[in-house]
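Quick one - inputs below.
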Amino acid sequence: MKPRSCFLVLPALLTLACEGEEVTAGLGEPIRVEDNLRNQPAQFRPEPLPGLPPLTAQEINDGVLPISPNITASDTTGRSIHPGQTGKKISGRASQDALSVGIALEGLGSGYWLFPVGASDAQYDGEFFWDSLISFADDIPPGNHRLLFAAIDPSGASGNQLGLSLCLLPKVPDNANACDPKAAPPSVVVSLDWDRNLDLDLQVRAPNGKLIDAKTPSSAIGVDGAKPDPKAPGVGVLENDSNSQCLRDGPRRENAVWQTKPFPGTYALYVNLFDACGEPSVRFNVAIYQSVPGDAPDTFRQVESFRQSGTVIAPQANGGSKTGLFVTEFNIN
Amino acid sequence: MKRRLAALEAKREPKRVSPSTRETRQVAANLERTAHSRPVPKGLLIGGYLQGQFELNQLSEDQQLQGGEPLNQDRFSLRRGRLRLDRGWDYAAGTLELDASTTAGPRVGIRRAEASLLYRGTNPDNLPPLLMVTIGVTDLPFGYELMESARVRAFMERSLASLSLFPTEMDAGLKVSGAAGFLRYAVAITNGEPLTPDALPRDPNASKDFSGRFGFDVDPSERFGLSGGASFATGKGFHPGRQATKDQVGWRDLNEDGIATSDEFYGIPRQDASPSVNFGRWVLGVDLQLDLDVVPGLGKTKLYAEGYVAKNYDRGLFGADPLASGSDQREVGYYAALLQRITDYGLIGFRAAYYDPNSDFLEQRQDQQLPRSQGILTLSPLIGAELPDRARLLFQYDLVRDKLARDDRGVPADAKNNQFTARLQVDL
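Output:
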């Protein structure tokens, strides 16, 4: 081979080596999309979603028609998204000239997800059906967000995007206050989260002496033989028992919630290691959130008033036989 | 005259000296030097080799798959650590080879465990016996690449087609093989299941796979060698049935509020077990190898190629199962490779390998069912340096061209999944 040929072959190989579409699981992205018709992951493209911005309400009212190719309809159940929610089904139709559908979460992430349309639907003038399952990362800032959909034709052109508003809920219960400031959050929330897959329990000793924990999940006490009423005013309720019996459930978080102002008195907080589940230790955070008035009239905010971290080691696991590690106490006047 | 006769006899009779360590190592290495003309020496031989490597892959991500498997593929690993014992007599031979690897976590397994009865006939010591019957864990007699030792192969791994059709080089079974002049033959009846840790623990069906290769190996001159053959393998794949289940309760979050309400619970009735079913599969192959020494002093040249056609035989990449997919899957694959030695100490090479795991794959695009190629072309330039019979250092770049991603229109396009490997091999 002549030296000149070598100089030609090398750049050609280098060029080929740099070509190709990036393939990623997209675990660092705020959303991940699956093509539900083909049961395959969508292709992630690290670039802005193509197309023009969605038509505004004013433009729609003025009779402006979207530029094709475009998404003509989207359909889903509910607009509230839990942190880390997976497989939310969103389907719809795309115009007759569409070849693929692109989906992105507006203002977040580093690109968009792309998958081909399905079959045409004669009932809608031959528009193409599409169906997706969308998973949401659990670290998306809570609040109102918009999913954007774009249709792409065989030449790569795209018309107006379509927006779909969603409310992404926080990890700490707030009665959707993050999306609607007029919705009052719970009066008090005590939240425990941890970093390893073991059975850690939040315990709160109420002023009436009752221990709120996984076994007795509310501070209510039955009077005169009546059953305790967990919905009574001033009563706190433990919402869940995460990783119970070492069965991984994902959140690694437990919340004790007082929807109304707790009964006055001193509340003591404990963290108890029920079962280490084979882990040597765990780091945890305990935080207290309170509802306060918002800046505007008739609005509210949820603010963090206390936070403390700590560690529990495996030998401290007690199967719930006693109260756990004392963390702090707070007073309600 | 007596002096001249004595001198001639002295030339013909080899000197009898005790073998040195280097000679023993060379004999041990020679056991794997060729794919189809391996000798069965007498006596006890101990050999082996180590392959440590570093890999870089464009698919690598610092993330985990569901289940915890890391997606990172940029790593150091022990690819192969082989220890081999051979014991040969006039009419019997035994081989045990163990393989240690960290490719899928630290693991030691059986690479080869052969018990053989043999009849050497008039074949010289540097040829296989005329007839050898082997039972145990043995190399599958198919094609060239599958039989080529990983110790000798310059390219890091077998081509994708070979890896997909035969995930492991060996299987448990009975093999009859030998050499008659320039002809080479081998037929085997085996369990038909790859011996991988994640495979079924035992052969799941009574049907055995039948494989074989019939070929030739000629050296018309010291500067030219030619070998080749035709191979087949046929057998029955296994489609596992469903296990019986008990009644269960499930929950569907119909209104997606994250709260379980009574109308969202549903029952899953128990199901009876369903039977397992076998399905037919086969593969045919042809291979050709050309050894040249055309430029004195430069080093030997090797050109070789192999092709496969198969039905339902993919057991490594996608796992062909016509009962699950609803139709037979036809596989096609080939490779062509060139190796040029630069004196005794250098090596360059290039291999082009193609594999299509399903020649009939279709994709719906808008309202049309269009053929979608699942073919994967791998171009592998290689460069290396070696100390003969001692060590070698190899660098290989795999340029992978496929249709596993989508372009900005959503049309199938090449995925970024090239790979670089640097490997140091030292013989024991």
